[in-house]
Amino acid sequence: GENVEQHPSTLSVQEGDSAVIKCTYSDSASNYFPWYKQELGKGPQLIIDIRSNVGEKKDQRIAVTLNKTAKHFSLHITETQPEDSAVYFCAASPPNAGNMLTFGGGTRLMVKP
Amino acid sequence: SAVISQKPSRDICQRGTSLTIQCQVDSQVTMMFWYRQQPGQSLTLIATANQGSEATYESGFVIDKFPISRPNLTFSTLTVSNMSPEDSSIYLCSARPTVLADTEAFFGQGTRLTVV
Q: How far is residue A43's CA from residue A2's CA, in Å, rounded to a whole number?
């Protein structure tokens, strides 16, 4: 089955700096890669996603890139703000896995004011 | 997007008892899932809740321990049976509107369960 690895597990940046979180996946058939933000005491919230027919997607300060050949995708947050502090999860969705998502281990992002 | 409401949001339960968690979606969805999230850990899929049929459980999870109902396209329940302290965790409901693998999945706010 699909296996997703996520790095780093913790990331501390200064407010205004950029943050990059990277994920690799194992199943080359995976075609959907969402990113979730989870704040303390809340459920994961979808913040951006990318499909396998696209190499990059941007939404304001957040961007995701996908390299299908290398089987990795990354989340980029620019001009970080204290409210970006949360745990971020990447996930991959193979087309033949019962419609389930496989999650990475998570990255705790801390933005220092 | 789908809005998912889970009840209860948290509970403290005695070992040996059972707790049923409810998940209500504001629109009809094809796929519903239940996840467990241990403190500080990632999400682990417990089962896929199938409408009109038995749930599909992942390795390590069994129906006797985690019975699931899915009576219609907007509602599901997860029961944690005969609880022990090891069941203390966050339980999350998730929904995907279609069967297509490249569609969004949304989550409820979770149920934080503590077993004493």
A: 23
Interface test with A, best of B31, B94, B102 (most A CBs within 10 A): B102
Q: Are strands A107-112 and B10-13 parallel, antiparallel or unpaired?
A: unpaired
- Residue A84: closest CA among A55, A65, A107: A107
Spatial separation of the C-alpha atoms in residues B29 and A40, rounded to whole Å: 27
Residue B55 banded pLDDT, cuts 50, 70, 90: very high
Whether the CB-CB separation of A52 and A25 falls below 8 Å is answered with no
Of A32, A42, A45, the CB nearest to B102: A32
Q: Which two tokens stand for residue B31?
A: 């796929």
The phi and psi torsions of B102 (rounded to 5 degrees) equal: -105, 30
Chain B residue numbers with beta carbons less than 8 Å from the beta carbon of A53 are none
A99: nearest CA in chain B?
B101
Contacts of A101 (CB under 8 A, 6+ apart): A34, A91, A92, A93, B45, B94, B105
Q: What is the pLDDT of residues B15-36, one digit of tens each?
A: 999 999 999 999 999 889 999 9
List residues bridging with B96 in a β-sheet: B31
- Give the position of tokens 């998570």: A106
So what's the pLDDT on residue B1?
A: 78
Which chain B residues have a beta carbon less than 8 Å from that of A45?
107
